[in-house]
Write a structure and sequence with these properties.
- The protein is mainly beta.
- It has a domain of about 70 residues: SH3 type barrels (Roll), CATH 2.30.30.
- About 0% of the residues lie in helices and about 45% in strands.
- The protein has no helices and ten strands.
- The strands form three sheets. A six-stranded antiparallel sheet has the order 6-3-2-1-7-8, with no helix packed on it. Strands 4-5 form a two-stranded antiparallel ribbon. A two-stranded antiparallel sheet has the order 9-10.
- It is elongated and about 60 Å long.
Length: about 100
């Protein structure tokens, strides 16, 4: 079970965007995620009249390593770690380590 999933609100704990919050857009692979407004790079794009693309400089969201983000706990308004708990009916759920509440996703 993945501790950080698509749709989770995360906070960056290391790197140039430290302290910023955003929602996970895409899980690139097991180690990298793309977060809204985080790790934005400028990309120079050539115009392509065949596809109707205009040239210029665009902002592109780049992946960030999952070790550099932590899930945001709205109860404490801080970054938190995630644990896995097995319920009585056998389902596995994600819980915050600090207060034991379920992660809503």
């Amino acid at each position: 079970m993945e501790k950080i999933r698509k749709g989770d609100e995360v906070i960056v704990i290391a790197g140039k965007d430290k302290g910023k919050r955003g929602k996970i857009n895409l899980r690139v692979d097991a180690e990298r995620v793309v977060v809204d407004g985080i790790n934005v790079a400028k990309k120079h794009v050539r115009p392509n009249p065949m596809k109707g693309e205009q040239g210029g400089i665009i902002d592109k969201l780049m992946p960030i390593h999952v070790s550099n983000v932590a899930i945001f706990n709205p109860a404490t308004s801080k970054a938190d770690r995630v644990g896995i708990k097995v319920l009585e009916d056998g389902r596995k759920v994600r819980v915050f380590k600090s207060n034991g509440e379920l992660v809503n996703a």
